[in-house]
Amino acid sequence: MQQTAAGISGEARSSEAGLIDRARARDEAALRLIMQANNRRLYRLARGILRSDSEAEDVVQETYVRAFTHLDGFRGESGLSTWLSRIAINEALGRARGRRPHVELGALPEATLNAEIIQFPLSSASGDPEKSMAQREIQRVVEHAVDELPEAFRMVFIARVMEGMNVEETAELLGVKPETVKTRLHRARTMLRENVEKKIGPVMMDAFPFAGQRCERLTQTVLRRLGLGI
């Protein structure tokens, strides 16, 4: 799902073609598989343009509606994931420019689509609230630093680093030369490192916290060992 048509094997291409045929027939399992395989990429690409979680989720949803109602127009010249990504980028760019492209909404039940959109960002459960708080704060700093990259560099960074797409696929997706992808990625990394280093200092003042439950637990343990704890 994450490769272009030129970069996948005949077996994988055949498997994708079968999945698309099932999706054209409104096979629910096929639709689920397609969405689950592409949710994260589409979300990240859309958010890279809009820099809004809620707007990006809306774009992902509209992308699937548009794609699933126009699957007959998919010619297989690129991979399905690339095709979906282009739709998401166009949808996000349209919103960013203040126009909302017309999307046909009638072909699939809205509730079916809503149920499959993964809410981002996903947060893992942790038994240590202090550690989780520190991790969230660092994540926030990194996310803001990525958001502050100019769009051209931000999109290359998201595609290459966050989604692991290769140079050729990124170039195809964004409509630029492979050399441009390499140059923009190098510059994006430099700017991102500078932004994070500038902001991380105040955050690191609160790193390695030892308060709350951990502090209380250690205090009680020491008191017990001294014969003073209850």
TrEMBL record:
<dbReference type="InterPro" id="IPR000838">
    <property type="entry name" value="RNA_pol_sigma70_ECF_CS"/>
</dbReference>
<dbReference type="Pfam" id="PF08281">
    <property type="entry name" value="Sigma70_r4_2"/>
</dbReference>
<keyword id="KW-0731">Sigma factor</keyword>
<keyword id="KW-0805">Transcription regulation</keyword>
<keyword id="KW-0238">DNA-binding</keyword>
<dbReference type="InterPro" id="IPR036388">
    <property type="entry name" value="WH-like_DNA-bd_sf"/>
</dbReference>
<dbReference type="InterPro" id="IPR013324">
    <property type="entry name" value="RNA_pol_sigma_r3/r4-like"/>
</dbReference>
<protein>
    <recommendedName>
        <fullName>RNA polymerase sigma factor</fullName>
    </recommendedName>
</protein>
<dbReference type="Pfam" id="PF04542">
    <property type="entry name" value="Sigma70_r2"/>
</dbReference>
<dbReference type="InterPro" id="IPR013249">
    <property type="entry name" value="RNA_pol_sigma70_r4_t2"/>
</dbReference>
<dbReference type="InterPro" id="IPR013325">
    <property type="entry name" value="RNA_pol_sigma_r2"/>
</dbReference>
<keyword id="KW-0804">Transcription</keyword>
<feature type="domain" description="RNA polymerase sigma-70 region 2">
    <location>
        <begin position="35"/>
        <end position="100"/>
    </location>
</feature>
<dbReference type="InterPro" id="IPR014284">
    <property type="entry name" value="RNA_pol_sigma-70_dom"/>
</dbReference>
<dbReference type="GO" id="GO:0003677">
    <property type="term" value="F:DNA binding"/>
</dbReference>
<feature type="domain" description="RNA polymerase sigma factor 70 region 4 type 2">
    <location>
        <begin position="141"/>
        <end position="192"/>
    </location>
</feature>
<comment type="similarity">
    <text>Belongs to the sigma-70 factor family. ECF subfamily.</text>
</comment>
<dbReference type="GO" id="GO:0016987">
    <property type="term" value="F:sigma factor activity"/>
</dbReference>
<dbReference type="InterPro" id="IPR007627">
    <property type="entry name" value="RNA_pol_sigma70_r2"/>
</dbReference>
<dbReference type="GO" id="GO:0006352">
    <property type="term" value="P:DNA-templated transcription initiation"/>
</dbReference>
<dbReference type="InterPro" id="IPR039425">
    <property type="entry name" value="RNA_pol_sigma-70-like"/>
</dbReference>
